[in-house]
Design brief:
single chain; mainly alpha; Serine Threonine Protein Phosphatase 5, Tetratricopeptide repeat; 9 helices
Length: about 160
């Protein structure tokens, strides 16, 4: 990732963590997603666009082929891995989703979307402690994320813990 993009993301994450309201956080979140989706590689960008369109059309097989290509051509592009993780989750392939979430988080440890997905999978697998751990990481990154506190409170209550 170019230095300027990393510096811009650092600034965006600082703004996200310090957002005074949900609407302010939402605006910053959109900027972060936009930055994550930026791709300067003309060989990879069409595959990403195709994969996103295929997911929107619910053509999960075509989306998988596209995101496989994205991760093959751009193995250091975190959002390619995250999009494929989301696709695997939609297909019910939790272990494959977890592998891609792991790669996403190696490349972008602040990826609140991947961490939230990790929590969903761990909760579905009956691993509430791991789900709660992922959500607590999200809380430090994106404290205004919609429904985050409710999810943390619900899991904590199920585990018999006070927040």
């Amino acid at each position: 990732m170019p230095y300027w993009r990393d510096a811009a993301l650092r600034e965006l994450f600082a703004r996200l963590a310090g957002a005074a309201s949900a609407s302010e956080a939402s605006a910053v979140e959109r900027e972060i997603w936009s930055a994550w989706l930026e791709l300067d590689d003309d060989a990879v960008a069409p595959w990403l666009r195709y994969g996103l369109a295929a997911i929107a059309a619910r053509d999960l097989s075509a989306a998988l082929s596209a995101f496989d290509r994205v991760t093959e051509l751009a193995p250091d592009y975190a959002e390619g891995w995250n999009k494929r993780a989301t696709l695997h989750w939609l297909r019910g392939s939790f272990e494959q989703s977890l592998a891609d979430i792991g790669r996403t988080l190696e490349l972008e440890p602040r990826h609140f979307g991947a961490l939230s997905g990790l929590a969903l999978i761990r909760e579905a697998q009956g691993r509430p402690f791991e789900a709660l751990e992922a959500l607590e990481k999200v809380l430090h990154i994106h404290p205004q994320m919609p429904h985050l506190l409710e999810r943390i409170e619900e899991l904590s209550a199920r585990l018999g813990q006070a927040i």
